[in-house]
Amino acid sequence: MAFSIKLSSIVRLGRGTQLFSFNSIRYGSVIPFKLSDIGEGIREVTVKEWFVKAGDRVSQFDNICEVQSDKASVTITSRYDGKIKMLHYKIDDVALVGNPLVDIEVEDDIDNPTIDDNKNIENSIKESTEENIPSNKETAGKILTTPAVRRIATENNINLKNVIATGKDGRVLKEDVLEFLNNQMKKLNNEKNTSKISMNKIINIDDEEVVALKGYEKHMWKTMTKALSIPHFVYSDECDVTKLLELRNETKEYMKAQGIALSFMPFFIKAASKALVEYPRLNSWLDETTQSLRIIKRHNISVAMDTSDGLVVPNIKNVQSLSVSQIASELNRLQELGRSVSFPLADLTGGTFSLSNIGMIGGTYTKPVILPPQIVIGALGKIQKLPRFDNDGKNIIAANIISVSWAADHRVIDGVTMAKFSNLWRYYIENPALLMI
Ligand code: CAO
């Protein structure tokens, strides 16, 4: 469910007359279509896919491109009818909010107008804008103009004080605003060319490559730097997963027939949720400013996921109400999104407790890093066949062992609570039938 930016561009000019849209003010005008503010404090995005190329015709709401911030993927749709003149970025380039994504040669509502038609349009604009000027000469911060022109300026983040006015009595005309826009475009293109030249200078060294951090990598930088200030208490243990292996082997094929790939992870997740029922404080967000814990009843379990674009941590919502197979199905869905690296924002936000399974790669113990504002993360090592004493303590048997390491924010969680939680989690994992009830 990627969200799209959809803005109506119909301009109504006085007395309810709908004359034309802003994008058809002048037939053939080239308009920089800028990346709008997409919320969540996102200032820059990486361009992941173009749905258009130069020369393509687009209509309002047609898909232009897919961009990815450090939080989500967003499909950008056209605000204009017209022809794509130029794409400002290549795939994987970083685009800044407020800067042009593409140039669009906008079209008039009237097909192929003749010069006279254009004149008529211009005239009707003039007439209508004149009609819209209030009798007391409406001003905006002492700038004399019409509401329609002011709206165009607002849509394009233009401060009217910077526009050279050529109208009567210093009035800013829409032509002035368009001229200003054109100049800005030229300036921006020059700046882009200059920065490209200096960047080439840096990376054209034979034995080095400069790689700028992007998207999820930048997010990892931010959250992990923030996590540095958290005093981590780490508690590790091992757990016999022999019964779990059997249970999973027994059910795996059946689940596969239902279209669900069942790994160990859904059991680890369910066991964490069941243990959280007993230790609800661990499912919290820490508010450092008010020094308070927000204990959350929903178990939105975040799962560290390896993707081609780096570490992403989507979460499975309301695990407390889900069965193991429902968790498996949700995990499959997230893994599918991980393959195309296109997570909707909703899957990436709201996590309350984290698990990281790195065991399919290897490793025994690891020290996981907490994902603030959460306060606990668990990490799993590789399942290994290891010699262990049986329950009587007399015979050595081949046991299937997995190690688990919990990291807790020691400002708010003490070691004993973490150890008790871990024991309960281990109990569920060693008696996995309980997870199916
Ligand atoms: N030990 C041994 N085998 C394991 C295992 C473990 N701890 N965990 C999973 N496996 C097995 C699975 O059972 C599966 O085998 P089958 O094909 O026989 O079923 C295989 O390894 C691959 O598993 P998977 O990756 O498809 O599925 P999963 O549910 O176990 O894990 C996910 C899902 C998203 C956790 C995993 O794909 C992933 O991305 N892990 C990396 C997490 C990570 O990057 N952690 C580090 C964070 S800090 O940088």
From TrEMBL:
GO cellular component: cytosol; mitochondrial matrix
PROSITE patterns with a match to the protein in the record: BIOTINYL_LIPOYL, LIPOYL, PSBD
E.C. numbers: 2.3.1.-
UniProt keyword Plastid present: no
EC class (word): transferase
Cofactor names: (R)-lipoate
Key words of the record: Acyltransferase, Coiled coil, Lipoyl, Mitochondrion, Transferase, Transit peptide
High-level lineage: Eukaryota, Metazoa, Ecdysozoa, Arthropoda, Hexapoda
Record GO terms (molecular function): acetyltransferase activity; dihydrolipoamide branched chain acyltransferase activity; lipoic acid binding
Catalytic activity: N(6)-[(R)-dihydrolipoyl]-L-lysyl-[protein] + 2-methylpropanoyl-CoA = N(6)-[(R)-S(8)-2-methylpropanoyldihydrolipoyl]-L-lysyl-[protein] + CoA
Family: Belongs to the 2-oxoacid dehydrogenase family.
Peripheral subunit-binding (PSBD) domain residues: 144-181
Sections of the chain in a coiled coil: 171-198
Domain Lipoyl-binding: 30-105
Subcellular location(s) of the protein: Mitochondrion matrix
Official protein name in the record: Dihydrolipoamide acetyltransferase component of pyruvate dehydrogenase complex
